[in-house]
Design goal:
The chain is mainly α. The chain has one domain. Helices cover 62% and strands 0% of the residues. The protein contains five helices and no strands. α1 runs parallel beside α4 and α4 runs antiparallel to α5. It is elongated and about 45 Å long. The N terminus and C terminus are likely disordered.
């Protein structure tokens, strides 16, 4: 039974929001986006300029959806792991800010860790994948 009183049949299509019932691809894209939002906050605390995401980074969830199999499973697990690290790290940085402690050193270290982990994750994408394959 649908626990959301605002949806009919589990669908939120008219609201413009992703439908999680369609599979984990939407959830993966949302987690990827949230991960980069958190990284942007860390970059701001670190005083580091955060450039717009290149297409290969933006399209990573869709590329991995198309790839499927063990690479997709690995990407999903890496996103979960990196999200946990970023959540804990950002929480610590915000706590330091609230206490009046300068967290820039820690934020810079977390930013570098994020970039290293993300770049390693991007290596899971097949070589030469400029983006998701489109069906006609």
């Amino acid at each position: 039974m649908d626990s959301n009183p605002h949806s009919k049949g589990g669908s939120l299509s008219r609201s413009g929001r992703p439908q999680f019932g369609l599979g984990s691809a939407s959830a993966l894209s949302m987690k990827w986006s949230a991960l980069h939002d958190a990284a942007g906050a860390v970059a701001t605390i670190a005083g580091v300029a955060c450039a717009p995401l290149p297409a290969e980074v933006r399209n990573f969830p869709a590329v991995m959806r198309d790839e499927g199999g063990s690479r997709r499973a690995m990407a999903e697990q890496h996103i979960e792991d990196l999200s946990a690290i970023m959540e804990a790290g950002l929480s610590a940085l915000l706590s330091a800010l609230a206490r009046g402690v300068d967290p820039r050193g820690g934020a810079k270290a977390l930013w570098r860790e994020f970039l290293t982990a993300r770049d390693a994750m991007l290596a899971l994408a097949p070589q030469g994948s400029g983006g998701p394959r489109r069906a006609a």
